Amino acid sequence: MVDKRPNVAAMWDERFSRTELVYGDEPNAYLREQAQKRLKAGAKVLVPGDGYGRNGLWLAKQGCELTTIDVSPVGVERARNDAKRAGLALQILLGDVNTWDWPKSEFDATVSIYLHLPPEQRSGVHRQMFEALRPGGIVILEAFTPAQLQFSSGGPKQVELLYNAEILRQDFAAAEVLELAELEVELHEGKMHLGEGAVVRAVLRKK
């Protein structure tokens, strides 16, 4: 979870240090659906921008081999503590997706859930996210579209941080598009993603 504002880590630290899990403790609904349909037990999965770990920890519980990375020390520590309590073995890294040394051709899936980046960062991170896949690997992505600005269910307020299907087609031009759609959904992900929302959802395969 990264945006172009200064001191991004501090912003997320404040949010993730609250007692209440601001995005809930359940995985993203689209991720759950796609993982159950497309990922086998033992799949090697990368989750950049995983915050306090709600998606990565759930995937680990499904038997996937997980690596996550986030810019927030508080979020990473919380995810590590929850993983330890649950007896889960996964790699939870502290780092910035813009400067991280991304692996190449290593993962069966990368998962991007509300990882909103400004244009000057977005396309490069999406390229590295795709290059991290093995042949046949998939990107599972959900993000808010500009139509989200009419709703109060969360997300960035700067239009340049929001995505649409055409942006994803361009960023993942080399991918086989398995799913790509803009739609309105009802969000139930903690108090900060609650209510009607406008999202783009995609599953993109490396040929």
Order of helices and strands: HHEHEHEEHEHEE
CATH architecture level-2 label: 3-Layer(aba) Sandwich
What spatial form do the alpha-carbon principal axes imply?
Answer: globular
Outline the biggest β-sheet. Answer: 7 strands, mixed
Number of strands: 7
Here the CATH topology equals Rossmann fold
Features:
disordered N terminus, alpha/beta, about 30% strand, 6 helices, about 30% helix, about 210 residues, globular, seven-stranded mixed beta sheet, Rossmann fold
What does this entry show, briefly?
By secondary structure, the protein is an alpha/beta fold. The protein has 6 helices and 7 strands. It has a single domain (8-205), classed as 3-Layer(aba) Sandwich (Rossmann fold).
Detailed description of the structure:
The structure is a single chain. The protein is α/β, with parallel strands linked by helices. The chain is 29% helix and 29% strand. Strands 3-2-1-4-5-7-6 form a seven-stranded mixed sheet. A hairpin with a 3-residue loop joins strand 6 (176-189) and strand 7 (193-205). The longest helix has 14 residues, at 73-86.
Which helices and strands occur, and which strands form pairs?
Layout: H1 8-16, H2 29-38, E1 44-48, H3 54-61, E2 65-70, H4 73-86, E3 91-94, E4 107-113, H5 119-131, E5 133-144, H6 165-171, E6 176-189, E7 193-205
Parallel strand pairs: 1-2, 1-4, 2-3, 4-5
Antiparallel strand pairs: 5-7, 6-7
Helix pairs in contact: 1-4
